[in-house]
Amino acid sequence: QVSPGLRTPRLPVWLCSVSGRHGVLFSTDSQLLSNWKSERIFHLYFYSGQQEQTQTAHLTIDTHSHHWEEVQREDPCSQQKRYPALEMAIRTKWAGATVSWNGTDPFF
């Protein structure tokens, strides 16, 4: 029998498989589970346990920023920017969100 804590987690946790590697994406904000208004700007943490990751990545997610529209207006002929696979995985839940790596070099 599965414990109630595993069926209904107190904090949001996602197990991820990104580019063939596994990791955990999580938040310390329980409001992300129950209050859609808390999805405006929030923090996520990612840890994969891979040798190249020396510390947990602290990401800031902004679901209402539209900076990509400004970039497209400035130079419509430029090549599209490539985003790390982890950012693209996050955007499967929050489409169009911007991800700030807060000083960590993006990986994956």
What low-confidence regions span 5 or more consecutive residues with pLDDT below 50? none
Report the major sheet. 5 strands, antiparallel
| H/E topology pattern | HEEEEHHE
Shape: globular
* Main structural class: alpha+beta
Report the count of strand segments: 5
Strand residue percentage = 25-35%
- Strand neighbour order, sheet with most strands: 1-2-3-4-5
Whole-number radius of gyration? 16 Å
Alpha carbon gap, first and last residue: 35 Å
Structural account:
- Its EC number is 3.4.19.12.
- InterPro entries: MINDY-3/4_CD (IPR025257), MINY3/4 (IPR039785).
- By secondary structure, the chain is α+β, with helices and mostly antiparallel strands.
- The protein has one domain (8-32, 43-100).
- The chain has helices spanning 4-7, 67-74, 85-90, and strands spanning 13-18, 21-26, 41-47, 57-62, 98-100.
- The chain has a 5-stranded antiparallel beta sheet.
- A hairpin with a 2-residue loop joins strand 1 (13-18) and strand 2.
Question: Can you describe this structure in just a few lines?
Answer:
By secondary structure, this protein is an alpha+beta fold.
Task: List its traits.
single chain, 108 residues, alpha+beta, five-stranded antiparallel beta sheet, 17% helix, EC 3.4.19.12, MINDY-3/4_CD
List the helices and strands and how they pair.
Elements: H1 4-7, E1 13-18, E2 21-26, E3 41-47, E4 57-62, H2 67-74, H3 85-90, E5 98-100
Antiparallel strand pairs: 1-2, 2-3, 3-4, 4-5
